[in-house]
Structures are given as C-alpha cells and as structure tokens.
Specification:
212 residues, alpha/beta, TIM Barrel, four-stranded parallel beta sheet, binds 3-phosphoglyceric acid
C-alpha cells in the first residue's frame, strides 16, 4: 500500500484518486464502517475535518483498523491542530487558508500540509514557502474552473485540489484541468447516510465518484 512506504508527499496524496471525500463525523463509532464503505467503492483516501469532538478519535480508529485507506485531517487551523493530527496517526493535513504559524509548524512537521488559497497573492505566499500542492477553497465561490484556468498561466507548477461547492455533476469540469490532481467534496460521505448507517449508499456514491 502506498502509505506503508512511510511519509507520503502532498502530490502522492492528491494523486491517490480523483476525489477526496470531506467528512464531518459526529460519532467515532462511524469511522471504521465509513472508511470500509469508501474503500468498497474504490476510494483510498479521506479527509476527516476537525469540526467535531470525534474527529481525532475517528482518525485513530481508521489508522489502526482500516490501514488500506489514507486518512488525513481537514480544517487544520493551528500548529496544535497539526500536532494532534500527526499524533492521532493522520497522514496529511489540509487547511482552508494559510498562516505564518501554520507554515512554520508544517515545515518541520511530521506530516505534509496542503494549505488552502483563493487568490494569486495567497498562492505566491504559499509558493514562496515551498508549498506547491494547494487546496483551492472555496472553489465555486472563488471563481471555479475559470479561476483555475487563469492561474495556470502564471503558476504552471502549482497543483490544486479544488474544494467547496463541487459535486458529482460538476467535478469532471475540474478534473480535466491540467493543474487539478483531484477534487474534494462532502457529497459522498453524506451526513444523513452516515447517521443512518447506510453504508451501501455511501459505497455507491464513492464508486461513481471514483470513476475516471
Ligand atoms: C469543506 O471544507 O467543507 C469543504 O470545502 C467541503 O465543501 P462542500 O461541502 O461544498 O463539498
């Protein structure tokens, strides 16, 4: 498995598959069945957002019980968040934006950070610090496909994971762009399916999203 080779690069993470499911988990008991449902649909990576008290425990459980899937954290806002995710076994961290403190912590940190940008100036700040794989957030609200096409000219070495407002209906528009490795979104691990334990429904959505 890719993650058994040790630390993955941001590019390896973003190239794991076309879609990175963004998950808000309220109950850590749901973590393992959710990870298995995604795997059954052909998805090998997921992002658990640090927006609930269950997130770190969910990451721990997935790491130990479903090692075939690469689990990272989203909504990583501070150096403490980054450390907690690494301690829980998370393989990567994604932030919606960037800050000097987060950059400094990520530089010597044990897991890769994929910071979020929405403008050329933010992108230049990230690039200046050596970050070339970025989340483009909030993708649809910040200009969507047209913005990413425009950014490719001056910044040809940047690879994006656009996230925010992306769905099964519009994901292909992003995935055909040369500067997009994958897209992120919450349309696969739907909270209502998770709450009801409808794992086969999640597997179906995952299988559709994982199609190239
Ligand atoms: C998020 O951080 O919430 C992601 O951007 C997911 O956005 P979405 O719910 O629009 O897919």
């Amino acid at each position: 498995m890719a993650h058994e080779r040790g630390r993955l690069s941001p590019l390896e993470i973003l190239h794991t598959g076309p879609v990175l499911p963004v998950v808000v988990l309220r109950n850590a008991e749901h973590a393992v069945p959710l990870a298995k449902a995604l795997l059954a649909g052909g998805i090998r990576v997921l992002e658990i957002t640090l927006r609930s008290g269950a997130a770190l425990e969910a990451i721990r459980r997935i790491c130990s019980e479903v090692p075939e899937i690469i689990v990272g954290a989203g909504t990583v806002l501070t150096p403490d968040d980054l450390r907690s995710v690494a301690q829980a076994g998370g393989k990567f961290a994604i932030s919606p934006g960037l800050t000097p403190c987060l950059f400094a912590a990520a530089h010597d940190g044990p897991i890769p950070l994929i910071p979020g940008v929405a403008t050329p100036s933010e992108l230049m700040l990230a690039q200046e610090r050596g970050f070339t794989e970025l989340k483009f957030f909030p993708a649809e609200a910040a200009g969507g496909v047209a913005m990413l096409k425009a950014l490719h000219g001056p910044f040809p070495r940047i690879t994006f994971c656009p996230t925010g407002g992306i769905s099964q209906d519009n994901c292909k528009n992003y995935l055909t762009l040369p500067n997009v490795a994958c897209v992120g979104g919450s349309w696969i691990a739907l909270p209502e399916l998770i709450e009801k334990g409808e794992w086969s429904g999640i597997t179906k959505l995952a299988a559709k999203a994982a199609e190239r």
